[in-house]
Amino acid sequence: MNNYTAVVEFVLQGFSGNRAFQACSLAFFSIFYVLAVIGNTLIFIAISLNPSLHTPMYFFLANLALLDIVCTSTVIPKLLEGLVGKSSHISYKGCLTQIFFLTWVLGAELLLLTAMAYDRYVAICRPLHYSMLMSRPVCVLLAGSVWAISAINSSLNTYLMARLHFCGPNQIRHFFCEIPAVLLLSCSPTTLNNIMTVIADVYFGVVNFLFTMVSYSFIIASILRIRSAEGKKRAFSTCSAHLVVVVLYYSTVIYTYVQPGSGPSLGNSKVAALVYTAVSPTLNPLIYSLRNKDVKAALRKMFPCVC
C-alpha cells in the first residue's frame, strides 16, 4: 500500500498557452492586483486614522479591506509569476499554505458580510437600540468570531488535505490551489474531505446567505415604511453597495464549491474564482468609497493635493 512516489510539487495549468492571451492576462491581473492592494490599503488606513470613522459600519469595512488584501495577495502573485514564464510550479507545502490562507479569508469574508448585514439591520430597523446592540465590545466580539471560526474551518480542511496521498498526476487544472481542484489529484479516499467541504459550503455559503437575505428583507420592509423620499434614498444608499457585494461574492463562491471541479464546469469555475480573488477585492474599495461621503472626506484629508 505504501509503494508509491509522493508528489513534491504541483503544476498550475492556469489559462491558455497563447502568448498574446498570456500578455493580456498579465496586464489585466497586474492592474487589478495593484488597484486591489492600494485601494484596500487606503480604505484601511483612512478608517484607522480618522476618529469620525470609528463606528461599527466602518470597523467592519476595515476588516473587509484587510481580508481583500490577504485574499488577492494569496493568489495573484503566484499567478503573475507563471504568466511571466518564471514558474508555473508550486511546491506541495506551498499549495497547502495557499489552500489554508485562501480558505481562511473566503470563510471570514462570508461571515463578515453577514455581520455587516446585521449591523445595517440594527441601524435601520432598531435605531434606538443601535448603540447598545452594536457597542464596541459587541463589534470586537463579532469580528473576532469571524476570524476565529474561519481559521478553525481552514485549519481542519487543510489538515484533512495534508493526510491525503498524491502519487499520480500533478497537473492542477486551475490557476491556484483550491480544495475542489486539488482533491481530484488525490490517490487516497477523499470521502471525508468532500463531506467537510459540503458542510463548510452549507454553513459559510448557504446559511449565512440566508441570514443576510433575511436581514435585508427586514431592512427593505422598514425602508418602504419611511414616508419621505429623501429618507428612503438615504437608507437605500447605505445598503445598496453592501447588497451588490453580497450577491457578487456569495454567488461565485457557492458556485465554485458546489460545482464539480472537472469537465465543462471547469472553465466557469475559473471565471467564478477570478471574481472573488481579483475582481471583487478591486471593486470593493470603489463600491464602498465612491458612494460614501465620509470615506471620501477622510481620503481628502490624507491626500489633499490629490483629492
From TrEMBL:
<feature type="transmembrane region" description="Helical">
    <location>
        <begin position="96"/>
        <end position="118"/>
    </location>
</feature>
<dbReference type="InterPro" id="IPR000276">
    <property type="entry name" value="GPCR_Rhodpsn"/>
</dbReference>
<keyword id="KW-0807">Transducer</keyword>
<feature type="transmembrane region" description="Helical">
    <location>
        <begin position="202"/>
        <end position="224"/>
    </location>
</feature>
<dbReference type="GO" id="GO:0004984">
    <property type="term" value="F:olfactory receptor activity"/>
</dbReference>
<dbReference type="InterPro" id="IPR050516">
    <property type="entry name" value="Olfactory_GPCR"/>
</dbReference>
<keyword id="KW-0716">Sensory transduction</keyword>
<dbReference type="GO" id="GO:0005886">
    <property type="term" value="C:plasma membrane"/>
</dbReference>
<dbReference type="GO" id="GO:0004930">
    <property type="term" value="F:G protein-coupled receptor activity"/>
</dbReference>
<feature type="transmembrane region" description="Helical">
    <location>
        <begin position="20"/>
        <end position="45"/>
    </location>
</feature>
<feature type="transmembrane region" description="Helical">
    <location>
        <begin position="138"/>
        <end position="156"/>
    </location>
</feature>
<feature type="transmembrane region" description="Helical">
    <location>
        <begin position="236"/>
        <end position="258"/>
    </location>
</feature>
<comment type="function">
    <text>Possible taste receptor.</text>
</comment>
<keyword id="KW-1133">Transmembrane helix</keyword>
<keyword id="KW-0552">Olfaction</keyword>
<keyword id="KW-0675">Receptor</keyword>
<dbReference type="InterPro" id="IPR000725">
    <property type="entry name" value="Olfact_rcpt"/>
</dbReference>
<feature type="transmembrane region" description="Helical">
    <location>
        <begin position="270"/>
        <end position="290"/>
    </location>
</feature>
<protein>
    <recommendedName>
        <fullName>Olfactory receptor</fullName>
    </recommendedName>
</protein>
<feature type="transmembrane region" description="Helical">
    <location>
        <begin position="57"/>
        <end position="76"/>
    </location>
</feature>
<dbReference type="Pfam" id="PF13853">
    <property type="entry name" value="7tm_4"/>
</dbReference>
<keyword id="KW-0812">Transmembrane</keyword>
<keyword id="KW-0472">Membrane</keyword>
<feature type="domain" description="G-protein coupled receptors family 1 profile">
    <location>
        <begin position="39"/>
        <end position="288"/>
    </location>
</feature>
<dbReference type="InterPro" id="IPR017452">
    <property type="entry name" value="GPCR_Rhodpsn_7TM"/>
</dbReference>
<keyword id="KW-1003">Cell membrane</keyword>
<comment type="similarity">
    <text>Belongs to the G-protein coupled receptor 1 family.</text>
</comment>
<keyword id="KW-0297">G-protein coupled receptor</keyword>
